[in-house]
Amino acid sequence: MYELTPLGVMLADWATNGRFARAVAGQLGFEWQTKKHAPFCGVRGRMRLAVLDGAVGLEEAREIIAALSERERVTIVAKVVLPGVEEFVAEQSKGSRVKKAPRDLLTGRTRSVRHRAKGVS
């Protein structure tokens, strides 16, 4: 879903309007969920997935966390992560995390999560 350009790694043109969220869900090993589960687009056990096609700030993070049930956690993926969001999410929802695309999606750790989800070691 990414292309190497003279400016660096950029989101491919096709990965817009929901396709980005679907691709991220697959890449991270989440089961895709339809818009009726908004703000979430994926689930894996008690972990929910929220993908933002732009920036995530404190207000967006607050709304996403408020939509969780008591035992759920969330992985938030956004193209831009504003200052303080990662710390806020970690404090408000223990076990939840924030990932910046594409930086945090192109690491070896992401690949290992994807392989575990598929049953590959």
The residue ranges in which pLDDT falls below 50 over 5 or more consecutive positions are 110-121
Succession of helices and strands: EEHEEEHEHEH
What fraction of residues sit in β-strands? 25-35%
Helix content: 25-40%
What is the number of beta strands?
7
Chart the SSEs and their pairings.
Blueprint (H helix, E strand, L loop, with lengths): L1 E4 L2 E4 L7 H10 L2 E2 L9 E3 L2 E10 L1 H9 L6 E9 L3 H8 L4 E4 L7 H10 L4
Notes on the protein architecture:
By secondary structure, this protein is an alpha/beta fold. It has one domain (2-115). It contains four helices and seven strands. It has helices spanning 19-28, 58-66, 85-92, 108-117, and strands at residues 2-5, 8-11, 31-32, 42-44, 47-56, 73-81, 97-100. The strands form two sheets. A five-stranded mixed sheet has the order 3-4-5-6-7, with helices on both faces. A two-stranded antiparallel ribbon has the order 1-2. A hairpin with a 2-residue loop joins β1 (2-5) and β2. The two termini are 24 Å apart.
